[in-house]
Amino acid sequence: MSKHHKHHDKGRSVKVTCAVITVSDTRNKETDKSGKLIHELLESKNHQVNMYEIIPDDKETIAGTVEKAINNETIQAVIVNGGTGISYRDVTIESVQPLLDKELPGFGELFRYLSYEYDIGSSSMMSRAIGGVANHRIVFAMPGSSGAVKLAMEKLILPELGHTVVEINKDLKNAKDEE
Description:
By secondary structure, the protein is α/β, with parallel strands linked by helices. The protein is 47% helix and 18% strand. A six-stranded mixed β-sheet has the order 2-1-3-6-5-4, sandwiched between helices. Strand 5 (130-134) and strand 6 form a beta hairpin. Helix 1 (3-12) crosses helix 6, helix 2 (33-44) packs across helix 6 (146-169) and helix 5 (105-118) packs antiparallel against helix 6 (146-169). Mean pLDDT is 93; it is low at 1-7.
């Protein structure tokens, strides 16, 4: 069996505990369609949501909430939606990026490509979606529209979520022993 194949199977059955963070000045738990969608899609693949928050487009609040998530023992993945565009109130990327130990440029690149192809055409260049690793947690920040969320979740995040967690953790135990 090829290494690639084994990895994939390993990742597929991993149950990941997640934080879902919606960044919006206007949405609440009743009207947060995208947050609900993320929730449902995660649970449909047997992942678990241990934290769900809706917070305003405010740099300190976003950074503080993501930090709380990446320092939570019960959370392995943080999925943020909203505030990734170019308007004045869009500060999710500025808030999340400094927290990342490693960036995953491929997430943003592939997301924009898929958005261009399947969702919004050339407007996709205004998306600053980002992925990376922060404190040994996988972190994704994507736009708040349900089209964008559905696309990012179904085509990129769900197929690789377990795999990313396996990769992040595979040599951690040894590293901790050496410390």
